[in-house]
Structures are given as C-alpha cells and as structure tokens.
Amino acid sequence: MGSANSTKLLEMKSITKYIYDEQGRGLVATGIKILDAVDFDLFAGEVHVIMGENGAGKSTLMNVLGGVIEPDEGEILINGEKERIRNTAEARNKGIGFIHQEMNLCSNLDIAHNMFLGREPHNRLGLSKTKKMNSETAQMLSKLGFNIDPRTKLKNLSTAMQQIVEITKVMSYHSKILIMDEPTATLTGREVDILFKLIRDLRDSNIGIIYISHRMEEIEDLGDRFSVLRDGKLVGVMSKSEYSRAECMKMMAGRVVNLMYKSTHVPTKDEVFRVEGIKIGENTKPFDFQINKGEVVSFGGLVGAGRTELAKSIFGARQYYGGSIFFEGREYKKPSVSKSIRLGISYLTEDRKIEGLVQQMDIKSNTSMCVLDQVSPHLVLKTRQEAALAQNAINRFSVVCLGVNHRTGTLSGGNQQKVCLGKWFATEPKLLILDEPTRGIDVNAKAQIYEVIDQAAKDGMAVMVITSDMHELIGISDRIYIMHEGNLVTEIADKREMEQENLIKYFLNSDEACESEA
Ligand SMILES: Nc1ncnc2c1ncn2[C@@H]1O[C@H](COP(=O)(O)OP(=O)(O)OP(=O)(O)O)[C@@H](O)[C@H]1O
Ligand SMILES: [Mg+2]
After folding, report:
1. Least crowded by CB within 10 Å, which of 26, 33, 108, 448?
2. Using a 6 Å cutoff on CB, does residue 438 contact ligand 1?
3. Are 480 and 498 in contact (CB under 8 A)?
4. Residue pLDDT, tens place only, 191-231
5. Is 419 in the pocket of ligand 1 (CB under 6 A)?
6. Closest Cα to atom 7, ligand 1: which residue?
7. How many domains is the chain partitioned into structurally?
8. C-alpha distances in angstroms, 301 versus 349, 473, 508?
C-alpha cells in the first residue's frame, strides 16, 4: 500500500496557470496566477489527498490533469514519460479518470446506456446492441462488487449508487489514475461507507487515487499522503505519520484558526413562523412546528427524510398536501416564491448549480437578483448600489474573486456557495431558510458562516437550517427537529440532549427511539 510501492504513476512539475480576461488576454501584469509552480505526484496504490481552502486551486490543478484546461507552464509525466494532455479524451486515453463533483449522468437513461453513452456498440443496421451493453455493464459492476440490474434507470438509484455507476464508467476506460473531486458532498454516512470500500478496493488493485474533500474525518480515514494548496501554491506534503489536523488547518489558512461554534445570540419566544398540520407528502402524517425571533432551529435526518421538501413547501416552491402556515401572526395562504421574498422569507437551496446562481452572470447581478426593486425602483438599475451590495457579500463571506464583476461560473465551488449565501442575506429576510449552507465550504470558512448565522439571529432573524453535518447540527442549533421519511419524529429543545448517539437513533427512527417518544 501507499508509497511502499514506488512506481511513480504521475508527476506534475511546476504547473502554472494564469487567469485570462474575456478577450483571452493573460492577466499576468496584475500578477494573478491561479496555480503557481505547483508540484504534485502520485504512486500506484495510494490515495493522495489534496487539501486547501475554497479557491485554493484544487479543482484547477485537477482540470489541468484531466485535460479540461492546459497549463501555461510546467510539465506532466505519466509513468516517467512526458505527456501533453490537450483535451479530456486524451486524458482518458492516457488512463486518467475524472469524477467531477457534479455527475455527468443522464437520469432518464438506464445504467447500461449511461455506461456506453457516446460509444454504444452498433450492429450492421446501426441499431444499438442493447443485450451486449447490458451484459458488459453487469459484468463491470460485478467486478467492482455490485450486483444491480443494468436496466435500472439512473433516477431510481440512490446518489451513492449513481456515484458508483459514474466510477464504474470511468474505470471501464481502464483508468490507472482516478481523480475524485468532492465525491461525497451529497452522500450520507452509509453511502459514504459503500464508496470508501470501493475506493480501498481500487487502491488495493494498484490504482492511484487523487481525493479532494473538505470533510476532515474522511480525509484522515482514507489518505496515505496529503498535499496542501494555498492561494495557488503548494505549501506542504505530508505522509500519514506526519499528518496532524491542526497543522493542516494552519497550513491551509496560513494562520491558526480556532473552531468554531460561538453562540452570542439569545433566542426569544416571539413567534415569527408557525406551521400547523403540514403534510408534505400524500401519505405522510401532519405535523406542527414554529420558529421564533432570534432563534436558530435546525432540521436533522437522513438524506430523503423530507427536509428539503418541507423547506420548499413553506417557501412556495413546491406543492404540499395540507396544513396552514402563519407568518408574523397572520395566515400565509398559497405561498409562492415571489410572495415569500416580498414578505421576508428567503431560501438558500441545497443545489446551487441548478437553482442557486446564474453562472453566466457576475457576482453583482447575482447578489442583487432578489432585491431588484430595492436596487432599481423604476427599473433603472442603480449600478453603484448594486456593486455595494455585492461588495458587502464578498466581505462578509470572504469570497475569493477578482471583484464584483467576476462571473460566478468561474468561481470555485465553495465560493459559489458563499455568493449564494450573500444573495439571500442581501434580502435581509425575517425568516432565513438555509439548506446545507456549508456544503463544499472549507473548514476555516465554515467558522465564518457560523458567525454570520449567529449575528443574523442576534439581529432578530429567525433562522431555519437543514444540515447533514452532525457537528454543525449540534453546534449551531437552539432547537432541533428530526424528520424521517416525510414525518416529524421529535423535537429536541434541551441542549443537553443534543448528543450524536441520541440524534442518530431518531434519524433512523429506530424502535427504541419511537418507544421512548411514546
Ligand atoms: N476562468 C477563470 N476566470 C477567473 N477565475 C478563475 C477561472 N478559473 C478559476 N478561477 C479562480 O481560480 C481560483 C481557484 O479555483 P478552484 O476551483 O481551483 O478552487 P478549489 O480549490 O477547487 O476551491 P473549492 O474548494 O471551493 O472547490 C478561484 O479563485 C477561481 O475563482
Ligand atoms: Mg473545487
């Protein structure tokens, strides 16, 4: 395992990449390098973790290796041979498999068709050989230890299984090097276990794996070696025995950072929001809950527990099956997104790629989108006000960017998330709903987001948080509601009862939990 096996699969030497402006001119003069002479190497049979804050350059470095972009300087050696990787097909042919954070699968196609997308075997009449695809797919999956029907539609698989299909597909190109950029961002505990077992099996079969994640526990569990990037530069490489979390966090930030949950707000009993008898599914049971002024109330549960459905229902982005909603003491009938925003209810979605940001537009336009009547009362855009709003968001969340005109599509994953947060805070809502607010956010920036949430509550906002991060759930909440399959399982209002084991019992809605409830 690890570097004991000393075949150097990959060497990236002094990789440098400049930022270019819209006309394709290098912004070298202003000294902006998003990668600055980065060295990186990988042995067969090891997991090499890349760590770094949001915007440090992790994805960019992998985009260079995966043929998505070409470096301006530096060279790449594979098995000791110098190689030029001009596009993604070349990367694939050289044995480099890239699993992006956002999966590239078609949910309406079955597993086999996804596996062979763009290279379907055809017979002489040009008809695709479905049987052949099915049997080969089944074979590939079973080689990795999964026995699933290749005719299953992707949308009927769990996220973990979809991820596994993606990996199987990438492996079917005989990849020797596997890049995984935040593969677990959308996975939960048990799903992560499935994925990790697969990763270990691949490592044992001598594949070299490059792994990027912000989840420290995972990284520590899986990594054989650790490279840390900061501001586009490599600041250190550690072996497993040299690794320490504190040291790593310091390297990432360039300073000592203390985590993390400081609560300075005092929740009140003044109700902002109340729901009576809401039914979020046809066959789910009605339940009540409320959120008060200055309170941070979280919803815990497993993925699929119905928390996002609940949030969308009360925000007016989805139909529900009965119940009444009260906002500031008055019944809020037939919620709709525009009404909600007008009233002072905001919702940060869990999926920024699809619902969160307009990727082609800049930070300025994105942050002002929901406050257009404030910024442009007579449809004349007040540019200066718009820019101020954006700058405010950038400062508040330390967004790594070139300024208010930076297109959001080219921001790093975590920084896109920060802009989304900025956009919703700009509306200064009375009820702020945050769905997985720190997904893809680096450990150090998380602390900052918790501070902003705390401050918001202090200013009197009612905050509703949906999170799958157990520490976060326990750390930031004044009260916790737990959901399971569309139903409310319990409410925990006592800080002393907010313990991991206790919560998990409710997450699974296991018998003992239900009995003790009764
Ligand atoms: N085409 C581009 N134009 C402008 N800036 C860019 C472009 N491509 C990347 N960047 C910038 O380069 C920096 C590095 O981005 P990268 O996506 O590599 O970060 P990352 O380490 O993967 O962060 P995260 O953890 O948030 O995913 C970011 O600040 C990003 O805004
Ligand atoms: Mg990234």
Report:
1. 108
2. no
3. yes
4. 788 888 889 999 999 999 999 999 888 899 999 999 999 98
5. no
6. 410
7. 4
8. 17, 10, 8
